[in-house]
Every structure is written in C-alpha cells, then in structure tokens.
Write a structure and sequence with these properties.
The chain has helices at 47-63, 83-95, 116-125, 137-140, 153-164, 183-191, 220-234, 243-252, 303-307, 314-317, 324-327, 332-335, 357-380, and strands at residues 12-16, 23-25, 68-74, 102-109, 127-132, 144-146, 170-176, 197-201, 241-242, 269-272, 277-279, 293-297. By secondary structure, it is α/β, with parallel strands linked by helices. Helix 1 (47-63) runs parallel beside helix 2 (83-95), helix 7 runs parallel beside helix 13 and helix 8 (243-252) crosses helix 13 (357-380).
C-alpha cells in the first residue's frame, strides 16, 4: 500500500474528563464492552493533564498552521467532573493554545445532571452541548437505565429543556439505533426538542460479535434509517439536520462529509484519557482489549508522534486500507468501507467490509434514488 503524500493533522481532540457515569447504558463501549481500561484510570482528569493537553494542542496547531481546533469534553459522564473543576480544565486547555487559534469547545452528556450553574460555565467558555437520548421514554429506557435499573428519561428531558432556554448552547441530540423502536416515532420525538442536529449512531458490533438482528437476510438497520430519511424529508417545517443522512447526500454529490464513519477522508480526531494517555479511535474498545491503546501520553509525546503511530497508519492509506471487495464497490466513496470498529474480525483484523455493509448499501441507494427523483422532478417541472 502506498501512503498519502500529505499527513492530515488532528483537528478534534476528545478529552475523557470523567471516567465514571451516573447511568448504566448496556451498549456503552467504555463500561460494558471487552476493554475494561476505565477501571485503572483516574475518575476525572486533573488540571495538570489538561495543561499538558493544552500545550500539546497549541504545539500541534502551530506546527500545522491550524486556525481553529475542536475540543470535545467526553466521558463517561463529563458533568461528574463538577462545575468548578470543569471550569479549571477549560481554562487550562484554553491557556495552552495561542490566542489567534480559535478553540471550539463541545461537550457530550446524558443531560441528567444539567443545572443553571452548568449553563453559566458553558456561557463563559462558549461550550456547546450535545445530549444523548434514544427517543421517547419507552425507547430510551430499553438501554439507558440508572445503576438502580430505573428510568433516566425524565431527568434527561429536564436537562434538555433547561438547555433549550439558551439555544445557542444546544448542539443537538445523539441517539443509538434500536430495531425494537419505531424509527419515525423516534425521529419525530427527538425533533420536537428543536435540536439543530440529530445524530443517529449504529450500535457497535464486529464480525466476531455482530449486532442484533431479527432477520440476518434483511438490511434492517438500513431500512430503519431509510424510514428516518423519509420522515425527515416529509416534514419541511423541521429545521434540524440529520448528520448521517446529510453526509450521505454530501458524499454522493462529491462533497466531503463531517463524520468519520462514512467517506474516505482520513479521520482527524484523537482521544486523550483522564490520565493523559493518547488513544486512537476509543470506540475500538468494543473490539478487543487494548485495541485503542497507543503507548503515548501528553507529558512525553506530541500529537505528531501519534500521527505516525503504526496503529493509525490506516489514516494514511485511504481506499487501499479497505477490503478488496470494498475497493471495487461503486459506493465506496460514500460509505468509506464503514466505521473502523465495525470492520473487525479476529481472522482478518480490519480487512473486512463493515458488519453493516448491506445496511449502508440499502440506505445509500435509498438516499441517492431520492436525490435522482428530486433532480428529475426539478428538470421536468412545467414553468408557470
């Protein structure tokens, strides 16, 4: 395989500011998957680590002439860090980056701990906030219960409503697809909160442990998301975007998408754990023990060191890193072979099509057929 001549720098830095969670989602790749690294990590990131992260981000931005970077506060549940400590972390990271580099702070939360003081901190540091919610209470509580096996839905909705009081801080909603839930009901319920973005994620699975299906002969996840697409288009009053679907539209039109799970553009994100260790794609924890571990940390190594790490070389090979049948597929520039963790098998590593290959094919063709029908209608319409 011949690598790309250029090395794409990191632009998004995901910080695990808290390594515990106040709810117990059964599909969580941090706490309920093969890799149990969280048990040996600090429960929250220290200010010393945040300062080192800020210096390394500043160093990386200067080396690659970056005008802006994204810093994503993640967990576990990041709000478990506490408001005062979070403010110290934000200040430490911002302080390490030159003032002429814009730092866009984002935070992903389950929403149950949001309060007005939290919103005041987000205002002060211009942090936009995304909330995870899988749909109406019954749908959400299939997987997102508290540690006492109680519903988390009401607390999450209360947090969302509080966040809506300052809409400029509301980044959107994240939902994991569950075939047991009605896709149109889920979409319309999430849309009722007027989020700017709804981001649907497929549950993590590998060829060794495939995602749950009712009928393996049917592209059920593709059908589910196609119904979301149809519902989204059928309601022009909605102003939100659906990230996966917009990316398929963009990539089908030759425009680069925004998520790492589609398209052939090299990933631009890197993860820093609560102890300062640098990881690749942290969702690889759903694959096997240590799959995301690089043996690097922000105290001793730069992010440029991570750019050239053997475990991240797939970033540099593009299509050549994919399975042979993916390389010859006419949809490869849109699906990109699927999300990296979903390609894994013990026998062939990541040299496999995605476990969602048939689903992605169905969904992409559904969207592309819709675009062609729209284009045909536009060009055959009789002028007034």
């Amino acid at each position: 395989m011949t690598p790309r001549k250029d090395t794409t720098p990191f632009r998004s830095f995901i910080l695990k500011v808290a390594n515990r969670c106040n709810i117990d989602c059964d599909y969580c790749y941090v706490f309920n998957s093969t890799d149990q690294a969280w048990r040996h990590l600090p429960s929250r990131m220290s200010v010393d680590v945040a300062q080192a992260v800020g210096r390394r981000i500043g160093e990386h931005a200067a080396a690659h002439n970056l005008q802006d970077v994204h810093v994503v506060l993640h967990g576990g549940e990041p709000l478990l860090a506490g408001p005062r400590h979070m403010a110290d972390l934000l200040s430490a990271v911002r302080g390490g980056v030159l003032a002429d580099v814009a730092v866009h702070f984002e935070l992903q939360t389950n929403g149950t701990l949001l309060t007005k003081p939290w919103l005041d901190i987000f205002e002060r540091y211009a942090v936009v906030v995304g909330v995870s919610l899988d749909g109406p209470p019954t749908a959400n509580d299939r997987h997102r219960l508290t540690h006492a096996s109680r519903s988390s839905a009401a607390s999450a909705v209360r947090g969302i409503e509080l966040l809506r009081s300052r809409p400029h801080l509301f980044a959107g909603l994240l939902a994991v697809v569950d075939l047991a839930n009605d896709p149109v009901e889920v979409h319309d319920y999430l849309a009722s909160f007027d989020p700017p973005v709804i981001d649907f994620g497929l549950p993590h699975g590998t060829h060794d442990e495939p995602p749950r299906r009712n009928d393996r002969r049917v592209p059920e996840y593709g059908l589910w998301m196609s119904r979301v697409y149809d519902a989204w288009l059928a309601r022009p009053a909605h102003r939100h975007s659906v990230r996966m679907l917009e990316d398929i539209v963009a990539l089908s039109s030759g425009v680069r998408g925004s998520v790492e799970s589609l398209g052939l553009a090299p990933p631009t994100s890197i993860v820093v754990e609560s102890d300062g260790t640098i990881e690749g794609v942290d969702t690889l924890r759903s694959v096997e023990e240590g799959a995301s571990w690089l043996g690097l940390d922000v105290f001793r190594q730069s992010f440029d060191k991570a750019l050239h790490h053997p475990k991240l070389l797939y970033r540099r090979y593009g299509m050549a890193a994919l399975a042979e049948q993916c390389q010859s597929c006419p949809l490869v520039k849109v699906c990109g072979g699927g999300y990296l963790p979903h390609r894994f098998s013990t026998d062939r590593g990541y040299q496999n099509p995605s476990v969602y290959c048939a689903d992605l094919e169905y969904l992409i063709r559904h969207v592309q057929d819709s675009l062609r029908q729209y284009d045909w209608a536009l060009h055959t319409a009789t002028p007034p």
